[in-house]
Amino acid sequence: MKNLTRRLFVAGTSAAMTGISWNACAQAYPSGPVRIVVPYPPGAATDALARMLGQALEPQFGSNFIVENKGGAATQIGTKAIASAKPDGQTLGFVDTAFVINPGLFGKALPYDTLRDFTPISLMATAPLVLIAHTAVPAKDIKEFLALAKAQPGSLTYGSAGIGSAPHLAGEQLRQAASIDIRHIPYRGGSTVLTDLIAGHVQFGFTTVPTMLEHIRAGTVRALVVTSPERVPQLPNVPTTAEAGLPKVDTTPLFGLIGQAGLPEATVARLGAAASQLVKTGPLRARLIEAGFVPVGSTPQEFSARVQGEIAKWAEVVKAGDIKPNA
Asked: What pLDDT, on a 0 to 100 scale, did the predictor assign at position 167?
């Protein structure tokens, strides 16, 4: 009996010390400046959001959060750098929809496993897309647009920043869901697409709401539908794809904070809680809304489930469209 009591005492003491050690490690984080790797060059929306979040996290953790841009290879260079870093929380990543599209697009050619090599921390925000058409297109709404596409197969063209980009796959979702024949024209950059759309060289396209809001309000282009579950405040008269009878067209770019596989649970929990609170309340939320984003601030578990669902969805779209990354 004495031996049993002694073993229980030792076990209890050990467990208590482990708990103290665990909490101490969580409180000691970070041990220095934290890098947030963004798989894009400076100036992209993902870069801007990462910097907003980093600035907001600094007073929470008493350390610098420094954005490091590693663009190239359809975000693979930067994303691989995130996966390859030591899982101690000193190197994090900030990713967007390419993170969940690339597994279906590149398959085993990816230099990392999106589901195995990362730890989702928090979904920061989403950015609804809007389908815009040049005013020369004789369609006042999405119903007339689809009727025109069916009456004139292959006559309507849309541009995107490239094969596998969110605007490209939004058009592919529309093509599959509405059974229409539309032509995709890949560009090397999103700004050129919008310039050509305004000039009428392509008939329509998908873009984030803030990007073309001034042109929509000026009547240079016509907004037909938004891809978000709910109407966006900036375009209250523009219906959602669900309202238009196209619930499967749900391209809503996401932006979130991730770490490596094996990141300590205490670090994940602390980062997730801090990021979520910042996104849901205060100045950061206001800045996101002002910039045209929809603040989310999810838990790590919610973000993980979203990542898994998005990967499955886009893999299906890519397969059904027989889309090849170098096509």
From this structure: 94
- DSSP-assigned letter for residue 242: T
CB 121 within 8 A of CB 268: yes
The percent of residues above 70 in pLDDT, for the chain, comes to 91
Among 111, 74, 92, 75, which residue's Cα sits nearest to residue 29? 92
Q: Is the dihedral of CA 158, 162, 164, 166 positive or negative?
A: negative
What are residue 125's phi and psi, to 5 degrees? -160, 165
Mean pLDDT of the chain, nearest integer: 90
H/E element, 38: strand 34-38
- Beta strands across the sheet bearing 157-160: 183-186, 157-160, 204-208, 129-134, 221-226
Q: Look at residue 20 in the predicted model and tell me its pLDDT.
A: 40
Range list of H helices, 190-244: 190-199, 209-218
**Single-letter amino acid, residue 133:** A
Contacts of 308 by beta carbon, 8 Å cutoff, 6+ apart: 115
Summarize pLDDT for 269-301 with one digit per residue, the tens.
Answer: 999 999 999 999 889 999 998 888 899 999 999
pTM value is 0.87
Amino acid residing at 95: V
Show the domains of the chain with their CATH numbers: 33-126+253-321 (3.40.190.150), 129-226 (3.40.190.10)
Distance CA 83, CA 61 (A): 23
